[in-house]
TrEMBL record:
Organism: Merismopedia glauca CCAP 1448/3
Name of the featured protein: Dihydrolipoyl dehydrogenase
Entry-linked PROSITE patterns: PYRIDINE_REDOX_1
Lipoprotein is among the record's keywords: no
Residues noted as binding FAD in the record, renumbered to the chain: 54, 118, 314, 320-323
GO-annotated biological processes: 2-oxoglutarate metabolic process
Length: 468
């Protein structure tokens, strides 16, 4: 066995949380070792999450927009899809470029990267299985646990190559004729959007009463309506009873609002959520507390119950989002370097990159009702936006939620094309305690979709004079 490696900061897991923490700690002068068992840096997000899914969603958007312009004078012939070329573009041109870039960034900062599965063996030591026969011990002063999460599995579902999780769906093996997506959350709906555009007939089964559970109904409606037109079937309040692989396909039974004893699909995508990996890294040997679900609780400085061990990203709790992980990664690194930093952000935006996109930040109308917070809601329909009309996408809506008494912006939801790019203005406004009149008095460029934020604020103020 080689000698132990010494680290000021050991970072376990090189996803968005881990690599950000490692780079920040190195920039602050600390000796950093970054351990990941994957073939490439970047974690779930870069390898099998955010980035490859967005590449495929871009392809989907090109396909559907071309198809929809046929009603307005531009006709294309039916697209031919070269799945190998599409897969290569996603993997080689997009994912590999980004993960390769991370190696460069690590090298520039002298972050020592070690590939292998890490397990804590004490409060100051990690053992890494670097190959079948070799291990490496890392002795650390501080550690940051950034081991992320894994796809949750549907209990009782047998192993079959036709039953996929998100990673397998992103591998784009083929285009199934009929695809069942179990789970109407962000990941299921995004991947359903991709396969729909590529030519699959999509059925969605979601156990709660709406897609994207917890969101306001009026925000989901434009997406639900558009998906209903494109997809074969969307079933809410519907539970999957059995999934039985047979030679002629995957037989599935449903109950709830839809009682179906047996329906046959070519493939099934299970996208019912993700489970934190807290129980899988021996953190208990370091004295770190892990809750029964696998989350590692932390304080505002991202510290676990063990003062020199920190945790960040998906493994510390919801929402499981890359930008939350990176934000937390910076905090942990800075605290270790001796800065007084805390997690103080009041909102974490979420985006579903479906078509249309849904983006939201801060309080929802439902939540305001539940918590008894007095709010005023202003919803601006994109049918009255010149920009939305000129790009043939009028189904959207911009909804702002203001405090009834102070008129301060507390929440925002945008549904429509590019909603994910638009939400940041609302995020900044919420973080900055901005009031409706301040948004109304901010000059927005015309014609843009961003104007809908200004228009919604003016609606709230009763000062809106002209539309379009
Ligand atoms: P991860 O990215 O999960 O990284 C954890 C790393 O730890 C992995 O590389 C793993 O190999 C490593 N690891 C685990 N255990 C060990 C061990 N014992 N030893 C060594 N290494 C270990 N989020 C968004 O914000 N926007 C999106 O658009 C988005 N799209 C998504 C699409 C899909 C299909 C999926 C699945 C997720 C998506 N997410 C998205 C979520 C996002 O990927 C995660 O929130 C993010 O990756 C979490 O970062 P992390 O650093 O906590 O962990």
């Amino acid at each position: 066995t080689p000698d132990a490696i010494q680290a000021d900061v050991l970072v376990l897991g090189a996803g968005p949380g881990g690599y950000t923490a490692a780079f920040r700690a190195a920039d602050l002068g600390l000796r950093v070792v970054l351990v990941d068992k994957g073939d490439a840096l970047g974690g779930t997000c870069l390898n099998v999450g955010c980035i490859p899914s967005k590449a495929l969603l871009h392809a989907a958007k090109v396909l559907t927009e071309a198809e929809e312009m046929s009603a307005h004078g531009i006709k294309f012939t039916k697209p031919s899809i070269d799945l190998d070329a599409l897969r290569n573009w996603k993997s080689n041109n997009v994912v590999d470029q980004l993960t390769g870039g991370l190696n460069q960034l690590a090298k520039q900062r002298s972050v020592q990267v070690i590939q292998g599965k890490g397990t804590f063996i004490s409060s100051h030591e990690l053992k890494v299985q670097t190959s079948d026969s070799a291990t490496q011990i890392i002795k650390f002063t501080n550690a940051i646990i950034a081991v992320g999460s894994s796809p949750a599995i549907l209990p009782g579902v047998p192993n079959d190559p036709r039953i996929m999780n998100s990673t397998k769906a992103l591998a784009l093996e083929d285009i199934p004729e009929r695809l069942l997506v179990v789970g109407g959350g962000i990941i299921g709906l995004e991947l359903g959007t991709v396969y729909d555009a590529l030519g699959s007939r999509i059925t969605i089964a979601e156990r709660s009463p709406t897609l994207m559970k917890g969101s306001d109904k009026d925000v989901i409606r434009p997406l639900h309506r558009r998906m209903s037109k494109r997809f074969e079937k969307i079933m809410v309040n519907t539970v999957v009873d059995h999934v039985t692989p047979k030679e002629d396909g995957i037989h599935v039974g449903f109950s709830g609002d839809n009682n179906i004893e047996d329906e046959v699909f070519d493939k099934v995508l299970v996208a019912i959520g993700r489970k934190p990996n807290g129980h899988l890294v021996g953190a208990e040997h370091a004295g770190v507390y892990i809750d029964e679900r696998g989350f590692i609780p932390v304080d505002k400085s991202m510290r676990t119950n063990v003062p020199h061990i920190f945790a960040i990203g998906d493994v510390v709790g919801n929402p499981m989002l890359a930008h939350k992980a990176t934000h937390e990664g910076k905090i942990a690194a800075e605290v270790i370097a001796g800065h007084t930093t805390e997690f103080t952000a009041s909102v974490i935006p979420s985006v579903a990159y479906t078509d249309p996109e849904i983006a939201w930040a801060g309080i929802t109308e439902n939540e305001a009702k539940e918590r008894g917070i007095g709010v005023e809601v202003a919803s601006f329909p994109w049918a009255a936006s010149g920009r939305a009309m000129s790009i043939n996408r009028t189904e959207g809506m911009t909804k702002l939620i203001f405090d009834k008494y102070t008129n301060q912006l507390l929440g925002a939801a945008i549904v429509g094309t590019n909603a994910g790019e638009l939400i940041t203005e609302a995020v900044l406004a919420i973080e900055s305690s901005i009031k409706a009149w301040e948004i109304g008095q901010t000059i927005h460029p015309h014609p843009t979709l961003s104007e809908t934020i200004c228009f919604a604020a003016e609606m709230n103020l009763g000062t809106i004079t002209d539309l379009y």
